[in-house]
Amino acid sequence: MNMSNKKDIDSITRYLPDDLTLQARNLLNEFGNQVNEIRLRVGRPAVAMLTDRHILINKDRLITAEDINACLEKLCDYSVYSHQNEISQGFITLPGGHRVGICGTACKDKSGCRTVKYISSLNIRIAGEHIGCSDGIFERVFKGRISGVLVAGPPCSGKTTLLKDFALKLSSAPYYKKTVLVDERDELAAMYRGVPCNAVGEFCDVLSGYPKAEGIINAVRTLSPDIIICDEIGDREDADAVCDVINSGVVIISSAHACNVDELYRRASIRKLLKSGVFEKIVLLKPGSARCEADSIIEVAENGI
Question: What does the domain layout of the chain look like in residue ranges?
Fold first, then answer.
């Protein structure tokens, strides 16, 4: 099986319409780690998104609304009600860290989106665990001492994959840093019934499903970490939580969506963090590769770049 660095093919294809399962398995066997997503859209063929192109799984077979509903039932382990909180946020996390984006019509109240109805498409993002992918970047970023790092890049550039490997290295020999993963969407450790499906290292603790701000504060209060790692930091509440713990001697490593430094500085919360001294380095990843290739590593000055 060519898909050696991704989770078992059956854990992905089992959610697809039955008559597409064999074709999808064959495609994943052939192209392996090149497949990043499988997209199902009502009225159109199912599509496998590769690193540099797309492939129709069956060009003559159009996805129906019934297919989408049946897939959703499988994704929710036949209990859609118990997954309403995830659905309202637009995604479902699967064992192994795979995440399914949900597109449809929002049902809202004063607090925001309560759930999604008339679901029209599903996007299965296939989680990758590429142990050792950070080797070159790690030596450049943490040479001399461990300090705060912000990993930036566009979607599918490998931000989450890089954070996973950082966590594994830092919480294992020879570093043995007490590391806490604040894993809001279960993409970093891929916890399943309390057990991480991804390698996290001997000195790593995981706060699974915690909102980032709450998880960061709880980690400092109860777990005495050396390092906190979280994915996709960005809103004001996240930034405030990070700033609250900056003087606790804890190193923060996180990620943000951005193609360049200018885009980072246009976001008020990220700008606040960069100016506060939380991050000493920014790793900018190359777009489109999904292989954790650094475009540049930037030193952050004392009061921001």
Answer: 10-125, 135-299
100-131 pLDDT, tens digit per residue, is: 999 999 887 766 667 788 999 999 998 877 88
Whole-Å CA distances, 27 to 43, 237, 283, 302: 21, 42, 33, 49
CA distance linking residue 54 with residue 56, whole number of Å: 7
pTM reported for the whole predicted model: 0.79
- Both tokens of 38, joined, read 């499988």
Q: What is the CATH number of domain 10-125?
A: 3.30.450.90
Structure tokens at 281: 């380095």
Q: How far apart are CA 272 and CA 242, in angstroms?
A: 10
Nearest in space to 189 (alpha carbons), one of 163, 169, 211, 213: 163
Rounded to whole angstroms, the Cα distance separating 274 from 303 reads: 7
Q: pLDDT tens digit string along 215-245?
A: 999 999 999 999 999 998 878 889 888 888 8
Q: Comparing C-alpha atoms, which of 191, 239, 193 is closest to residue 212?
A: 239
* Fold of the domain built from segment(s) 135-299: Rossmann fold (3.40.50)
> How high is the mean pLDDT of the chain?
89
CB neighbours of 193 closer than 8 A, spacing ≥ 6?
none
